[in-house]
Design goal:
Keywords (chains A, B): DNA-binding, Transcription, Transcription regulation
Oligomer: homodimer
Strand content of chain A: 15-25%
Structural class of chain A: alpha/beta
Largest interface: A-B, 71 and 72 residues
Shape of chain A: elongated
InterPro entries (chains A, B): HTH_LacI, Lambda_DNA-bd_dom_sf, Peripla_BP/Lac1_sug-bd_dom, Peripla_BP_I
Protein name (chains A, B): LacI family transcriptional regulator
Largest sheet of chain A: 6 strands, parallel
Organism (chains A, B): Kribbella orskensis
Number of strands of chain A: 12
Order of helices and strands of chain A: HHHHEHEHEHEEHEHEHEHEEHEE
Radius of gyration of chain A: 26 Å
CATH architecture of the largest domain in chain A: 3-Layer(aba) Sandwich
CATH class of the largest domain in chain A: Alpha Beta
Number of helices of chain A: 12
Helix content of chain A: 40-55%
Chain lengths: 335, 335
DNA sequence: CTGTTAGCGCATTCAA
DNA sequence: TTGAATGCGCTAACAG
């Protein structure tokens, strides 16, 4: 039978100090190494701590120190395969600096993002914010609170907030270059959320592509496997020889539909993903795609936030490069 | 330029009370609805809160209330595709009950698990523990603290701790039944971590299988795609007609190797996964497997923990059923 | 080196 | 209904 810890039976620093025959301050000093303490007292404190099973109350420490020892992360969708690795890296960095990690999810709902960030701000030393669709004005309001914060996967020009992102533009440029060199002239892009900065960055790459003879048509689609599945058939009719996607999920959906329709890939049409979601951990995917260094992204983000916390350091936006992986779904256009 | 919130410029309940011309107690009452307050005062408080941008300090609330408003979750590997959906569900339930979610990862290292749980206990009202390999003695020690805790994916007989898990035994029995009905007589099981309860449950199903004429040989393997890739070749030589795996990742690795070797699936050998990791979110996988209701698992776990916190309620271990999904990698044995 | 004192910011007694 | 006083558990500043 478990009880919730009745306040009375919770062991505090005073219980320890009494048991050890020292003051509470000494117990604190021993446990935190804040000051030199006579070794005999140190031993008595440690004994008492062990006997009583004492653990400092984190809330009390936070209050007294003015620091929570916690950072917060807000992501739009915990189940999106993009984030686990990022969180893993953030968690590792965070832990290495002696802090804990609070995680919240907005469930892709911009309406709640603001509240969640506010909530994080009142219980975390710093916030890592991945909020692709939050309106600029709301972001500005949050930034104005001067609470340590790092923007993740989104760069907002004119905001004095450290941010880390991926060079999506360059990534898509590599994709286009690959296709152009294979001889493709017309391609379609299954577009992601139109309000998303990350999507806009991808699209921006098509201007340069045009200069090199590759015309890319943007088609509204979405960010899910299902969306790719539904949209791809109509796109094919337009006579393109290659299909680019907002992310790998969309590409998987599209491939699935193409397979059903008996369309051969890459013989009849090339399909190129984005993000490289399924690479290492799940299957040896054969999708040509361009990869995000998700673990590095998480690690660097955690480090920037830590520096911000310790030094109050403000840094320039950081862009991580993407890498093209040519696999089995891209090839020369049908002639 | 961001500063870390200088203590002096942090707005407290006293700032609000001064601005509104009321006592701090009244501010507290208005914000928490703890008692009736004259409506004119209510308005003044709300105005002051808005003007000053006041947000209650979570640590101070926690201290005063004796509750942190936070639950903690410990998982062995954040990047394991098994957990995102679980965390998503836990997060939703937790939030619905007005609590936050702290997440920690043991990185599959039993040595640190104990410390992490201790850390969670001193900053969380309750703990959700997924720790497949922690020795029974250590678990017992943690349970003895009487801190609200729910065991996840592990049932420990004789412990008075609420636990929720999946009926792995039944799941593997379904797999064996499927194979037996197809006519298979000899199969190999690529075993997961030997210390894991979840693995033992799967193996337990092979006794019944034998009674139905299916002989399953257990082969040490591991829990990763790589392990499946490395081990499967040697297994094939033993002449089995079907390969069962600890999880889908292992199965994917095995399939990858088989494909390389030109072994046809399921014509020459059937391959059956476990967990159904890649189903909906990523690709339309064609692996025959048996699925875990991961979101329900997370939801139910969160609810049990919440009940424990509110009622101090102790419940019997809960087992969720698995579902067999017959797809393209299983078929009749070669003759 | 150690104990005593005084907050940290809030919720909750107790009086009024 | 409201305000003043007290304490949650801990750390830091101050004496000794």
């Amino acid at each position: 039978m478990q009880n919730r810890p009745g306040r009375s039976l919770r062991v505090t620093i005073n219980d320890v100090s009494t048991a050890a025959g020292v003051s509470a301050a000494t117990v604190s000093r021993v446990l935190n190494g804040t000051a030199k303490v006579d070794s005999s007292l140190v031993d008595r404190v440690h004994d008492a701590v062990r006997d009583l099973g004492y653990r400092p109350n984190a809330a009390a420490q936070g209050l007294a120190r003015g620091e929570w020892g916690t950072i917060g992360v807000l992501v739009p969708d915990l189940a999106n395969p993009y984030f686990p690795e990022v969180l893993k890296a953030v968690s590792a960095v965070t832990r290495a600096h002696g802090r804990r990690m609070m995680v919240m999810e907005s469930d892709e709902d911009p309406a709640v993002e603001h509240d969640l960030v506010e909530d994080l701000m009142r219980c975390c030393d710093g916030v890592l914010l991945c909020s692709p669709r939050m309106p600029r004005a709301e972001l500005a309001e949050l930034v104005s609170r001067k609470h340590p914060m790092v923007l993740f996967n989104r760069v907002v020009p004119g905001f004095a907030v450290p941010s880390i992102s991926v060079d999506f533009h360059s990534g898509m440029t590599q994709v286009c270059g690959h296709l152009a060199q294979l001889g493709h002239r017309r391609a379609a892009y299954l577009s992601g959320p139109s309000a998303s900065w990350a999507n806009a960055e991808r699209i921006r790459a098509f201007e340069a592509a045009r200069a090199f003879g590759l015309e890319v048509t943007v088609v509204d689609c979405g960010a899910t496997s299902r969306a790719g599945y539904d949209v791809v058939a109509g796109v094919l009719e337009s006579g393109v020889t290659a299909i680019l996607t907002y992310n790998d999920l969309v590409a998987f959906g599209a491939l699935s539909k193409l397979r059903e329709q008996g369309v051969e890939v890459p013989k009849e049409v090339s399909v190129i993903g984005f993000d490289d979601i399924s690479l290492d951990r799940v299957a040896h995917s054969n999708l040509t795609t361009v990869s995000v260094p998700r673990d590095e992204l998480g690690r660097r983000a955690g480090e920037i936030l830590e520096r911000l916390l310790v030094n109050g350091y403000d840094e320039d936006p950081l862009y991580l490069p993407m890498t093209l992986h040519v696999r089995d779904t891209s090839g020369p256009p049908r002639s």
